[in-house]
Amino acid sequence: MSRPNNLLTLALPKGRILDEAMPLLARAGIEPEPDFANENSRKLRFATNHPNVTVIRVRSFDVATFVAFGAAEIGIAGNDVLMEFGYPEIYAPLDLGIGRCRLSVCEPAELRRTDNPARWSHVRVATKYPRITEAHFAARGVQAECIKLNGAMELAPQLGLCRRIVDLVSTGSTLKANGLVEVETVADISSRLIVNRAALKTRPADVGGVVDRFREALDAA
Amino acid sequence: MESYAQRGLLPAGLRDALPPAAEWEAAVGERLLACLAGHGYQRVKPPLVEFEATLLAGAGAKLAPQTFRLMDPVSQRMMGVRPDITLQVARIAETRLADAPRPLRLSYMGQVLRVKGTQLRPERQFAQVGLELIGAATRAADIEVATLAAEALAEIGVPNASIDLCEPTLVPAVCRGLKLDDATAEAVRAALDQKDAAALKAAAGKDAKLLEPLLRLAGPAAEVGPKLLQLDLPAEGRTMLADLVAVADAVRKAVPGILVTIDAAEARGFEYQTGVSFTLFARGVRGELGRGGRYDSGGVEPSSGFTLYLDSVIRALPAPAAARHLYISHGTPRAAAKAQRGEGWRTVQGLEPVADGRAEAKRLGCSHVLIDGRIEEV
Q: In terms of CATH architecture, what is B9-168+217-316?
């Protein structure tokens, strides 16, 4: 559907990454209205100091979907989300260096003592990332049976859903608290500035301009 | 009896076009073809189904996963439903029109069918309109094809259209020039396809500095063209960029109403293109309106061409004005209705006498009614 206006929509992920992204946004000269910082606000779209730039706050997986379909021209998303979807319509021109963590295969510490990952031929894994997980294990000749969960992955081994999980690990304290250890790293994760391909091609000045602002903000840091 | 819902359900990616959309799509297609015909491109009409062996030969191999197949009970050979028309036109040029003088200019319009749609473009059946310029692999040929694609969109009035030029063989050539091994070259290509700066850095190592401008320098031809010519790339790459920028400049001069952008490293979906290529977009429209470029059909002749996806083109156009229909009451002499059609009206004949002609016209969606020889708005 054609959108006649000159509006640019910037999709930001809720939660942890947002806190790290805000200073970067400020350095790029984009300041959302005060209500944006209010977690309890029922608003979904927020104005900024630029009359033609609005900001939306959605779940991290939805950032990629909004940008892939061109509903938002620009967004911030981790490469975990980008790898999981593999949307060809998304470009990731800048590594923002925030939201750093890793996607890892984990299992109970007890199991780890006797387990030899090199001998796996089939694993059952609880994860939010079935596509990445399957591709990772397929690349090393292991068949992965993925159980899609949307959160609290660490519960799965405790309650006997399955023995292994593939999940994001940053400090490792959640793993430790649940008696889990990392077996191997699937990918290193950081947040990227993403843009919709068609939007970058058809509005190079607007969209490219925002990318340049973020690039300058990063270089200045 | 089956319910409406059961009979109405179509397989995924297929749809019924209703009035006025069906007529509008056909009209737009004809206008595009007329524009191409005006430039000397003559229409051909290949069949919907061909032997699989010929349909998927050479460059067609990449379309194999997208092709519906059926067994021909007559010849007992496997047939494929065309997922694309380009290679059928190339086949016609190589066989039946082998003796026609070159360069050969052909155009086409037809439906194609694909096994799978994409998430962003779920249609499995859609119309393609396009042209092929066969037997010329020169800069002038590249310019003609790209210019005509831009002009065709301008001609039918696509607002805020843009053409993005690329050179799909550039990145492989630069990788060769830098003597990168195959795995590295593949990783570099993937990173450039996603414009993923982090992945490019990781893949290219010390050469990232040289390759990074290819990722960053994408945008309006007037701006990035001169910068691309300054890049310190291996010789083969510099020649390609010079060609690309020259084509972009020519299109920009020929069709001032369209935005011409360059994204030199773009290569996705251009695996069989062998020279300057392009993608057509319109602002606010999801995905591509069409694409084209120089390709190798697997035969002996170099060719260039483009294809427009008619359903996407329609989405880029403003909605057409509603057609005006004139209700003719039962019993009106045929000559009176005919006279109105002569004036350009579309007449809707009442089949039975009705008490209120105006109300009946309204019920049938007519904008006007003919009463006592006078036309009145409903």
A: 2-Layer Sandwich (3.30)
